[in-house]
Design goal:
The protein has about 120 residues and is mainly α. It is built from three helices and no strands. About 70% of the residues lie in helices and about 0% in strands. The two termini are about 35 Å apart.
């Protein structure tokens, strides 16, 4: 976050208006990203349950490597820093694996994975 001096009266009203317009767009994009991630994680919960039910490992290093390469290429095409895109995906992958491990533990322990668990999956799954 940055500080701003927009509360002082020395900013051109047209600049304030453009800043507000851009910030509204950023807020809309942030909301869309959150909703898209939520939908993605609903799917990955299903993947985690399927993996656990069939005693598949929580991690899939081959798929993860393919997804990272794919995301890096998409980032380059979109003029986004591929290193940033990879870091973002690695963060998701770590969460996914952690949640898949929890689902597997719940399943092996005789418990049915709860619908209230917030779980994720490997990227793109």
């Amino acid at each position: 976050m940055t500080t701003s001096n927009t509360t002082t009266g020395d900013v051109d009203p047209a600049v304030r208006e453009e800043l507000a317009r851009l910030r509204d767009s950023i807020d809309n994009i942030d909301a869309a990203v959150v909703h898209m991630l939520a939908e993605r994680f609903k799917c990955t919960q299903q993947v985690g349950r399927l993996k656990a039910a069939h005693q598949l490992p929580p991690a899939d290093p081959g798929r993860e490597a393919r997804q990272i390469a794919r995301l890096r290429a998409l980032a380059e095409h979109a003029k986004l820093d591929p290193a940033f895109a990879e870091k973002f995906l690695n963060f998701i992958i770590a969460e996914v694996i952690r949640h898949h491990e929890r689902i597997a533990e719940d399943t092996l322990g005789g418990a049915t994975p709860s619908a209230n668990h917030t779980t994720t999956s490997s990227p793109g799954e």
